[in-house]
Design brief:
Blueprint: E1 6-11, E2 17-22, H1 25-47, H2 51-62, H3 68-86, H4 96-103, H5 111-130, H6 158-168, H7 174-183, H8 187-191, E3 198-199, E4 206-209, E5 212-216, E6 219-223, E7 233-236, H9 239-251, H10 268-279, E8 286-292, E9 295-301, E10 308-309, E11 312-316, H11 325-338, H12 343-350, H13 355-366, H14 370-386
Antiparallel strand pairs: 1-2, 3-4, 4-7, 5-6, 8-9, 10-11
Helix pairs in contact: 2-3, 3-4, 3-5, 7-9, 7-11, 11-12, 11-13, 12-13
């Protein structure tokens, strides 16, 4: 007892001594009981976190490793597909069946989303296992395959490429499309490209990939953080692209190759408007809604190929195929393989970190032609059939 107060000491959750004071022994005893209960609760939560608590901790640990956009995507998917069905459970109580049940709603979603959520689940539980919070890992044996496979996007044919370029030649997306088709850069690499990385006057003109474009709250962010280490590369460019870039550079007021009217990199919504110059010229069905007697009625209109838009007679529906920015890059890679460029060189030019990505495209290009494989197969079995 000191200065009219009684004192005792307890060890807190971190193992440090904490002094407690009270004017009477009874109050000190009650205070000690309450403090010990709080400490036990903290220790229990540390050893037995809920799925929601550990997911929050895991995301915090990732914040130093991934870009803000990636972290935002992780957070959205984790909250919706992991925390929502499993969040209230203690991490150590989750079983493999609980994981499988949580994945059921994702079977109707895209294969890409299924794979992402599957990856997040495994990362969270493997991390918890390494931290000795689990006796066993319920994600072991959970298949990474699931979800609906996306419709395969084929490379554009030479005829489709020519039609696309002719259609948009005097329009805003023309330079973007040229760069994608003839250098294979990703969308974020093209939109982050600056003139100091475009070398047009060297014996072998090339583009040096050193920056990438991302957006935060629709605003562009240009950084030197690329998708992978392999994305940092120097890509030789053909004469047609060299000539186009010379024209653009002469009139440019910006340090960016693709820029808005003020010379700034495009925002996400600005790029969407630029790409719309392509989509509005396709002859694919369009949906629109009208209110009739207070009800929203859906109508579908299919433009006639070669026809003109009613409100803009200058706009012609000239494109009879779907096209996406990534499809342009896929076309570049496919054309290299068709030309006989070896897969390892293609892997470098495309900035693929994993050779599997390149080889999958290579197999699709090389082995998807029965007429060319016929002689190979006949040769392989000729000896057997002659016996």
């Amino acid at each position: 007892m000191r200065c009219g107060y009684y004192r005792t000491r307890v060890l807190d959750a971190d193992g440090k001594q904490v002094s407690l004071y009270a004017p009477t022994r009874e109050e000190l005893y009650q205070k000690e009981l309450k403090t010990r209960r709080q400490i036990e609760e903290i220790i229990f939560k540390r050893k037995h976190p809920t799925v929601a608590e550990y997911c929050e901790k895991w995301l915090l640990m990732q914040s130093a490793k991934v870009s803000p956009a990636t972290l935002r995507s992780y957070t959205i998917n984790m909250n919706k597909y992991i925390v929502e069905p499993l969040g209230s459970m203690y991490l150590s109580d989750v079983t493999a069946d609980d994981i499988r049940l949580a994945l059921i709603p994702l079977t109707t979603k895209s294969a890409g989303l299924y794979s992402t959520v599957n990856m997040l689940l495994k990362c969270v539980f493997y991390s918890a296992e390494r931290s000795q919070l689990l006796d066993y890992n319920p994600c072991e044996g959970i298949s990474a395959k699931g979800g609906k496979q996306a419709k395969k996007k084929d490379a554009l044919t030479d005829e489709q490429t020519k039609l696309l370029l002719d259609t948009v030649k005097e329009l805003p997306p023309y330079t973007f499309i040229m760069i994608a088709l003839y250098s294979g850069l990703r969308r974020e690499e093209i939109l982050g490209l600056q003139w100091d990385c475009v070398f047009l006057d060297t014996p072998a003109p090339y583009i040096s990939v050193r920056r990438a474009w991302r957006t935060e709250h629709n605003r562009p962010v240009i950084s030197t953080t690329l998708k992978t280490k392999a994305a940092r590369r120097d890509v030789p460019i053909p004469k047609c692209l060299v000539d186009r870039l010379r024209e653009v550079k002469e009139e440019s007021i910006s340090e960016y190759v693709i820029a808005d009217s003020e010379g700034q990199p495009l925002s996400a919504s600005q790029f969407q408007r630029v790409w719309k110059y392509v989509t509005v010229r396709t002859a694919k069905p369009r949906n629109y809604y009208k209110y009739v007697n207070g009800q929203s009625i859906k109508y579908t209109v299919t433009p006639t190929l070669g026809g003109h838009q009613k409100n803009n007679p200058k706009l012609v529906y000239a494109i009879d195929f779907d096209v996406t920015p990534h499809q342009l890059r896929h076309t570049y890679i496919t054309n290299l393989l068709y030309a006989g460029v070896d897969p390892k060189t293609v892997q470098y030019l495309a900035g693929h970190e994993n050779s599997k990505t390149t080889m999958d495209i290579y197999a699709q290009v090389k082995y998807n032609k029965p007429e060319e494989l016929c002689s190979v197969v006949n040769g392989a079995f000729q000896r057997q059939s002659s016996k």
